[in-house]
Design the sequence.
């Protein structure tokens, strides 16, 4: 159980208490909205210590703070400690005490029972040679998925899309360890036959889960596109834009240059935001926060759009099925306050526009 | 605190601040400690945490606290080394970091007015967009705020050229003990000969006189070039005398940090990681002097050449051969580049905790004090990390010294030994005509004991405190009282 998991992390927890450098504070996207220390990594490290020592008991108060974490990893990028592991262990501890949000419970139950996180309007399948794992979000958006498949085809790839179940990231992130184990079994049953092949992925979160939790050989499809850009002859887009690094794609998988290289190849004038690359700021869509505190998620998204406005651009490009709608929502709402709309677009859409269609 | 009084106060605070006033334990824990050495399980819990965003809101908070006689403890970066933010008498912790707006950048007069909760890092990021910078920069600047620098009178990497916060501070707005927001200082002038210098009182007052909510600061043009170099010296004394010579020659040196041989190890993690070996330091070298020069390229180059000639020709020093080591030191001190910092910081504190006696001395007594440091730290079984002499006053060598140790925080007794070490170091400083603290402050460690340093003037300090804070609500248990070091 999680007291053990927390105890195993005790050295990190006490080291943070001893160090108190505060590097995780100022740019934590949740702290930027909430302003209380508890929402930062070092604040949660103090809560972790208090739980270990019995100073505080698991409670709805603590749960509210933990549910407010985007698991974006900004703190971990600033620190030598295993911040995310401590935070997910804390969530798991809350869950075992019966403290988990109904929204999260419902989602995890659905993954366990149906193998999906969202509705899948049409079964997506395609004969091909290279496995392409769409993930729940793209399974729920067939139009976008088809656009991406078309782009990949134009890049000379031949994606194989088969029936797939959810990777289960959400269950682990929300602290449902036992459920995650069951989900892993289902996933392996459904997708295990591709274990020896290189699998293309679209969702950064699925990519990291397939790699780290299932040990699969995965490549995010945008990397495959970047590798082929020289052979393509894309049209040039007249666009001045910034690029938002999705947390899992950039900070955690280190895919920082490839999307930028593609954007330049498409003729996009790229302007960097203040928080970029490894220290990018989350869109607000991480950690299941949008389920439990949509207002917080929205404020985080608005701050990210403010980052774009801060460098004078009105176009933001990203490449993640969570970031895109979350930031678009932030941009729309912020436009009501600023009268400036920052258009949020997917890099896949830009590629679709720029790459010649097959005759 | 009486729970009924706290409940009444909370109700009033929430009427002003809504959910930005909370009694939740999970929030109070976030304000339960700073970076000061104490037992690893130690907590000081405030009763209520509030998060104001304007001076007016701070005024309301203080009025409520005054009415109910509830302690008020401002909390900023939480990186202090003296327990300055320890709410050990309970009360209201004011989270000041949401007071983070730049109110005015007056480029013609090279001044910026900010809310005091802005971090030094964020202020500099904003200034950089205008080709300006603010040179008061402690190593904690990513978390440390302007208000905290004023409250603690902390150190600055660039002290040798720009001094400390008071040298770049023109005025502040502070909310005093009955809830009145008052501007103190010299408007936008760099000096004043009228009235009393109340701004000087506020700097280093550690939140015991009021809550600083705004500050007007001097900013500077961003230098074109900076060069950082290290030199090994034959003694600490040589390092200080060489610096005196450089300044006497007319050189403008931006920063100078003199480390004893032992202390250097704390700054060489990056080098060791990269090269898997210790940097080459000659056996005869007893001290390492790090210097930075900044400005136009030709001036910087000339300055470095001249400084090098003085060090090599007149003091038989040598340049540090491995520039990577110097760059690693600079990164950990100034640019806070991630990797060296990560290696140096948490990893250095996995088993024990950094702690320091921060005495200030007349410049001629550094070598003698170093010997005292070795004796006293040994007597109290402290794990010696080493000494750094910071130069914190414009254009003259000064001895603001970190005598650092790693503190065993696993037992109350081992932590108590650290404070016995601080007590003896402080007493030694007074004997040497110096000061007990040169950048950390009294916090909850030196209060009462510091009367030894101030003598009869201590009574005047108490009267000043009563005048600013008639209810005795501001950061009680600090300046005049200690939990760790008994009053003589």
Sequence:
């Amino acid at each position: 159980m999680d007291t053990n998991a927390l105890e195993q992390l005790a050295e990190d927890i006490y080291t943070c208490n001893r160090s108190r450098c505060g590097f995780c504070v100022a740019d934590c996207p949740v702290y930027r909205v909430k302003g209380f220390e508890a929402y930062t990594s070092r604040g949660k490290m103090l809560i972790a210590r208090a739980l270990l020592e019995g100073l505080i008991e698991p409670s709805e108060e603590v749960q509210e703070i933990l549910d407010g974490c985007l698991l974006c990893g900004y703190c971990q990028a600033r620190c030598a400690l295993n911040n995310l592991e401590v935070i997910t262990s804390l969530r798991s501890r809350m869950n075992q005490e019966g403290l988990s949000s109904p929204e999260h419970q419902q989602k995890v139950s659905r993954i366990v029972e149906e193998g999906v996180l969202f509705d899948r309007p049409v079964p997506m399948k395609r004969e091909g040679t290279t496995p392409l794992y769409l993930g729940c979000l793209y399974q729920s958006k067939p139009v976008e998925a088809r656009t991406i498949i078309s782009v990949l085809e134009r890049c000379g790839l031949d994606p194989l899309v088969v029936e797939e179940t959810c990777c289960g990231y959400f269950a682990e992130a929300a602290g449902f360890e036992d459920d995650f184990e069951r989900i892993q079994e289902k996933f392996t049953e459904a997708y295990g036959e591709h274990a020896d092949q290189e699998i293309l992925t679209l969702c950064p979160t699925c990519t990291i889960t397939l790699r780290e939790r299932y040990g699969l050989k995965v490549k995010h499809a945008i990397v495959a596109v970047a590798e082929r850009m020289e052979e393509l002859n894309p049209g040039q887009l007249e666009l001045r834009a910034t690029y938002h690094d999705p947390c899992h794609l950039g900070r955690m998988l280190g895919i920082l240059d490839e999307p930028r290289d593609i954007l330049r190849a498409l003729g996009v004038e790229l302007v960097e935001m203040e928080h970029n690359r490894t220290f990018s700021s989350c869109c607000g869509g991480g950690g299941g926060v949008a389920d439990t505190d949509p207002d917080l998620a929205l404020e985080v998204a608005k701050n990210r759009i403010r980052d774009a406005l801060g460098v004078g651009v009105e176009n933001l490009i990203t490449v993640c099925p969570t970031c895109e709608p979350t930031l678009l929502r932030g941009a729309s709402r912020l436009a009501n306050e600023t009268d400036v709309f920052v258009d949020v677009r997917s890099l896949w859409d830009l590629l679709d526009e720029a790459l010649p269609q097959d005759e | 605190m009486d729970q009924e009084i706290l409940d009444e106060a909370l109700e009033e605070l929430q009427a002003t601040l809504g959910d930005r006033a909370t009694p939740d334990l999970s929030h109070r824990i976030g304000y339960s400690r700073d970076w000061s050495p104490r037992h690893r399980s130690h907590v000081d819990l405030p009763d209520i945490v509030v998060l104001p965003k304007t001076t007016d809101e701070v005024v309301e908070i203080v009025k409520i606290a005054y009415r109910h006689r509830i302690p008020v403890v401002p909390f900023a970066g939480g990186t202090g080394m003296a327990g300055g933010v320890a709410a050990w008498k309970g009360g209201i912790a004011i989270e000041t970091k949401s007071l983070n707006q730049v109110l005015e950048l007056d480029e013609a007069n090279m001044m910026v007015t900010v809310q005091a909760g802005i971090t030094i890092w964020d202020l500099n990021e904003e200034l950089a967009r205008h080709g300006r910078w603010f040179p008061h920069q402690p190593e904690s600047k990513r978390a440390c705020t302007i208000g905290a620098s004023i409250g603690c009178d902390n150190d600055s990497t660039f002290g040798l050229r720009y001094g400390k916060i008071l040298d770049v501070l023109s005025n502040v707005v502070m909310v005093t003990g009955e809830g009145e927001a008052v501007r103190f200082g010299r408007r936008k002038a760099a000096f004043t000969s009228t009235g009393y210098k109340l701004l000087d009182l506020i700097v280093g007052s550690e939140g015991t006189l009021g809550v600083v909510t705004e500050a007007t600061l001097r900013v500077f043009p961003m230098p074109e070039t900076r060069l950082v170099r290290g030199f090994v010296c034959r003694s600490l004394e040589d390092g200080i005398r060489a610096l005196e010579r450089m300044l006497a020659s007319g050189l403008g040196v931006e920063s100078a940090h003199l480390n004893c041989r032992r202390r250097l190890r704390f700054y060489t993690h990056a080098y060791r990681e990269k090269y898997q070996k210790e940097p080459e330091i000659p056996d005869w070298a007893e001290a390492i002097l790090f210097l930075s020069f900044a400005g136009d390229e030709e001036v910087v180059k000339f300055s470095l050449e001249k400084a090098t000639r003085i060090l090599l020709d007149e003091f038989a020093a040598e340049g540090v051969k491995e520039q990577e080591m110097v760059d690693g030191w600079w990164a950990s001190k100034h640019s806070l580049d991630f990797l060296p910092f990560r290696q140096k910081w948490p990893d250095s504190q996995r088993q024990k905790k950094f702690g320091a006696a921060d005495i200030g001395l007349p410049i001629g007594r550094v070598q003698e004090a170093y010997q005292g440091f070795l004796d006293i730290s040994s007597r109290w079984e402290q794990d010696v990390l080493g000494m750094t002499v910071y130069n914190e006053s414009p254009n003259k060598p000064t001895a603001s010294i970190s005598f650092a140790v790693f503190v065993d925080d696993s037992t109350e007794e081992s932590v108590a030994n650290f404070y016995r070490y601080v007590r003896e170091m402080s007493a030694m400083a007074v004997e040497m005509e110096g000061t007990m603290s040169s950048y950390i402050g009294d916090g909850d460690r030196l209060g009462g004991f510091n009367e030894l340093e101030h003598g009869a003037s201590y009574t005047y300090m108490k009267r000043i405190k009563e005048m600013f804070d008639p209810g005795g609500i501001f950061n009680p248990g600090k300046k005049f009282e200690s939990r760790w070091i008994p009053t003589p």
About this structure: Residues 2-100 of chain A form a domain with the Fumarate Reductase Iron-sulfur Protein; Chain B, domain 2 fold (CATH 1.10.1060). The two ends of chain A are 59 Å apart (CA to CA). Chain A has a mean pLDDT of 95.
